[in-house]
Each structure stands twice: as structure tokens, then as C-alpha cells.
Write a structure and sequence with these properties.
By secondary structure, the chain is α/β, with parallel strands linked by helices. The chain has helices at about 25-35, 55-60, 75-85, 100-105, 125-135, and strands spanning about 45-50, 65-70, 95, 110-115, 140-150, 165-170, 175-180. It has one domain (about 45-180): Rossmann fold (3-Layer(aba) Sandwich). Helix 2 links the parallel strand 1 (about 45-50) and strand 2 (about 65-70). This is 16S rRNA (Guanine(966)-N(2))-methyltransferase RsmD.
């Protein structure tokens, strides 16, 4: 695990110390940020089920204005904070040690340009997460995007009121589903 490009380019990140955290591969991260491209600079980035923070840290390294990391695992939080300090990106980060569902049930202070959702696979957590974001459109900026990372076999249609799935990209054992305001 490393930061691919930007201000922290090449910095090795501490891999997960717990079995419950599944990091994104460098190949998957490269593909994701190639798709997101110009959405990242000066963006407000929300990393839900953040784990060790590899995706949000990559966003900060590529010029995101800020990144909020929501993770409730103590071991993952320790690794996330270590990675932020190592990359010297901690000044632009907010780390919240809490449950994602609890976090999403309160109104946001400001909308996010990119919301990244990468829960543990095969636990049916991505669907209620996207539904909570859909139920409170203030979470997502006007031209924002919600990205779900999961196993390709987990992706299916959801009934949503404010969000619409625009694309699904598959890279081996990972899929990214992209939702924008309808």
C-alpha cells in the first residue's frame, strides 16, 4: 500500500493490522482516481468505513481541500492516524471514530463533493449506507458523486429517490458503482 501520486507520492502506508479491514489495491485505486480525475482538486472528500484511510489519503495527496474519515474500529483508527501523520496530510483531515450509520443520521455541516463507501464485503452494508445518503440529499454537493466499492457480485439496483446509479466499473474482484443526483 502506497500513495500513488500527489504531494505524498510514493509514501508507504501502514497496511491493516486487523482482519476486518480490506484495503483497496494500488491497481483499483489508480483506476478509481483516473475516473474521478478533476473532481478531486479542491474537493471535500468523505471516506466512510475508512479503514486505514488509503483512499481519502490519496484524495488529499491529489489536492482535495479536506477529507473526513469515518471508522469505528480501534485498530483501523490507530493505523489511519499513523498513515495521516506519515504522509503529513493530517492538517486537512478530520478523523471520526464512530459508526457510519450513526454519523449519517445527523445533518451534515456542509455537503461533500465525493463520498466514498467501502464497507466490509458480504455484510449488506453498502445498501443502507447509500439509502441514508439518498434520504438526506444535503450530504452530497450539487455536482457530487457517491462511489461504492464492493465485490462485483454484490452490486444490484436500489430504489432511490434522489440518487441514480450512473455507472459500474469492474476491476477483477472489485467493482465501483457511481451515483449522482437524479
Amino acid at each position: 500500500m502506497r500513495v500513488i501520486t500527489g504531494t505524498a507520492r510514493g509514501t508507504k502506508l501502514r497496511p491493516p493490522s486487523s482482519d476486518g479491514t480490506r484495503p483497496i489495491s494500488d491497481r483499483g485505486k489508480e483506476a478509481l482516481f483516473s475516473i474521478l480525475g478533476q473532481r478531486i482538486p479542491a474537493s471535500r472528500f468523505l471516506d466512510l468505513f475508512a479503514g486505514t484511510g488509503g483512499v481519502g489519503i490519496e484524495a488529499l495527496s491529489r489536492g482535495a481541500l479536506s477529507a473526513t474519515f469515518v471508522e469505528n474500529g480501534d485498530v483501523a483508527l490507530r493505523d489511519l492516524r499513523w498513515n495521516l501523520e506519515r504522509t503529513r496530510l493530517d492538517d486537512a483531515a478530520v478523523v471520526l471514530g464512530q459508526d457510519v450509520f450513526h454519523y449519517l443520521k445527523r445533518p451534515p455541516a456542509d455537503p461533500f463533493d465525493v463520498i466514498f463507501v467501502a464497507p466490509p464485503q458480504w455484510k449488506e452494508l453498502w445498501e443502507p449506507t447509500v439509502q441514508l445518503i439518498d434520504a438526506a440529499p444535503a450530504w452530497l454537493a450539487e455536482d457530487g458523486v457517491v462511489v461504492v466499492q464492493t465485490d462485483p457480485k454484490e452490486i444490484h439496483d436500489l430504489e432511490l429517490e434522489h440518487l441514480e446509479r450512473r455507472d459500474v466499473r469492474r476491476y477483477g474482484g472489485v467493482a465501483f458503482a457511481f451515483y449522482t443526483s437524479s
